[in-house]
Amino acid sequence: MIHDQARYTREDEAVHEPLLSEKTEESVDASDASPLPDDLTRDSLTLPAPSEPEVARHYTRLSQMNWAIDSGPYPLGSCTMKYNPKFTEDVAADPNAAVHPDRSERSVQGSLELQYRLQEFLGDIGGMDAVTLQPPAGAAGELTGILVAKAYHEHHGNDRSEVVIPASAHGTNFATAATAGYDVVELPSGEDGRVDVEALEAAVGDDTAALMLTNPNTVGLFERDITEIADIVHDAGGLLYYDGANLNALLGRGRPGDMGFDVMHYNVHKTFATPHGGGGPGAGPVGVVDELAEFLPTPRVRKTEGDGGYERFEPDNTIGKVHGFAGNWLVLIKAYAYIARLGDEGLADAAAKAVLNANYLAERIDLDVPYGPFHHEFAATAGDRDAADVAKRMLDFGVHPPTTKWPEMVPEAMLTEPTEIEGKSSLDDLAEAFNLAYADTDEALSTSPNRTAAGRIDQVAAARSPRLSWQALDEE
Amino acid sequence: MSGADGSPYAPHTDAETAAMLDAVGVADEEALFDIPDAVAFDGEFGIDARSERDIRDECSRLFGRNRDLTEFLGRGHYGHYVPSVVDHLSDRAEFLTSYTQYQPEISQGFLQALFEYQSMLVELTGLEVANCSMYDAATALGEAATLADRVRSTSGDVVLVPEQLREGKRAVLENYCAGADLTVESYPMDDGNADVDALAERADADAVMVYAENPTVRGCVEERLAAIGEVADDAGALFTLGSDVVSLAVLQEPASVGADVVVGEAGALGLPTAYGMGLGIFACSDDFIRQVPGRLVGASEDARGDRAFTLTLQTREQHIRKERATSNICTNQAWVALRAAIHAATLGPGGLVDLANDCVREAADLAERIDDVVGAAAPVHDRHHVREFAVHVDQPAAAVAEDLETRGFAVHVIGEHLLQVCVTDLNAGRADDLVAAVEEVI
Lengths: 476, 442
Fold this sequence. Notes:
heterodimer; A: three-stranded antiparallel sheet; B: alpha/beta; Aspartate Aminotransferase, domain 1
């Protein structure tokens, strides 16, 4: 299959959609009509002033130059790019849900009940006792969880300075631990791609605040020794943190809480199908076991005694807040709607089909997959080809390529996660795109892509002399 | 399809599933799971699958239980009318169902939209660099503090913030500061503005950052911004200014008063009232370009020699720099930034300035009318205001607010005898009714 992304050409030259500022710009005097005295106002404001039809065409044209899940396969490993059910948009757009966060409890009982129900759903799915919905993204969830762990240790007079993280973990884990003020102890991967239990034993000790673990890990492998891992961390007095990025593989078959994890975050924009929005918003609720519930951010929501209502409350030893208000509310509504739509069987089926799809696709591609048995994602290796080049060539074949060159334990990695939404024929197309690109000539690879709105982009030049605004372009 | 009990969004027919299992060489899907029995889950969540229609009905009933109040609420979360064109364009699936532009060649559309958003913030702040979003104003403030800690050469560890600050914003800031061993301290206010003399006394070599807001949490226009900037400068501290995307259209340009960093809320455009969901602004001087948190879109060239956009300076970020990254942020508020940009484009500079000036005018008008009510005095602070202002009531404020709520109005309680009222284009049409209700209850 060949794919041409919307391009306009005139006499063989590409015609690009101009910047808004290149179409129409206006400068207005900001102080003239202002009731404020001149010394409290700015002089002027210069911005594009397109008509509404021009706005509509501009953004429609831009949208045509953007790949999305609804365009075709988007098997970006560790990102869980699944279909975002349309009806959840309508549920979230309910005007009665559009309330201010400072409303009194009695006037927002419906919203509080939905928050409560979602807390319960997530607690059940993760095997956790208490849940906060406040963190606005996965990394914010990580920070929340690690701050909760820190508060727990400090509360018990137990100052600890290190967080242990496997080398294969997401970069956010390392950055989160550092943001929370911890030193990072990186744990090399074992030969089978999993945590090396002996190395873990050597790494943990009195200074260990927590081990952050993704399970299945970032090449899709389940940490079979999880019980032993949990014992080692707990015996050292540390806590076990679950990174929820790969929870889609476990739905209905395994719960972090049952595996000994004490604290976890959920990526609702991955597992629970809320739209990724070109980079966000997501939401990163955090679940914890009972012993940690008193440290969660404030406020949480609970049932009031007796009257069937709902109320906000402040956990006894709360870490305070991780978002100015209540997090990404519109995203949370969509996650609730998705979970309710699938129910127990649908959630379990999502995991089953996600794992089947990854295994079937791996079977169909000509690239080696060094580690297994994997679940919802696998890291193929491009071997002596450059994974980034293979990915660029795939863009010409009507698919989005996988995550490339990560994790580093697999040379020239192509981390692939098709999710449950692709059927057999779509996976066959995806496999063909892999195989055609992988087998193509060096020249074809290095000069691709050719059918996208832009050709290969010079990253080095972009970083060497950053031009980050139309004002910067005008200065040239 | 995968049967009545399967995921409605997994398209496999039974025959396809069988063929795929056969190709993989297993009898069923369960054989693909490598989960030891000891930790396997074979229970039930007890979540019953429902139809789309049932869920829409259920949620509609739930939200219908929220009381229908006219909100005169602000304090950091603002509702303005969002034109329909914003919904219809941002809801295009090519935008909504895409993700971070890791493959820029096939993601030029979103990249250009974010580049345009960054440019709008550059114009509004006067600073050279704006990222393409933080979660909200509070987390952006936290990121500003850690940036200040990285770029300041001295060993100071104090972040100075106004005494009147939204409590939740300060709580978030403290969580970001704790990990960097920074301490948050407040400086006093003088009739709704920063007490610059007291601030000057407090700002010594320990200060890494001085934070001020314009407008303040009580809606006051800050009158001595340049002086605050000088105090920060003299102490060798960064001057971080908090604002919002609408106020920036008319208030003093942050760069012109010496701001090094601007944080704040851009969700005042593009987002309806959304229970506090926001869009964090982060802009700064290009001195700190390699210390900025979050994603940056830059212009470059493609192999054909044409202008093209790409995420850039990624060596600052967590997926490359890990524990030495400038921030742990990955997923952000990109789609909200797209919405804010579409809204700003639709308004144009004239519309945006008008909207901001209306916020000033309407606040002054409403304050004057509430001030006419016996037992109420407004505005409490003798300042200019944007959208909102504090009101003194002789009676206990909580009781007054509760009475107003039974009459269909929501206002803030910010002190024993202090209310706060926020007026925008959305509720200005009900201002008469609010004044009448205030007259009735006090």
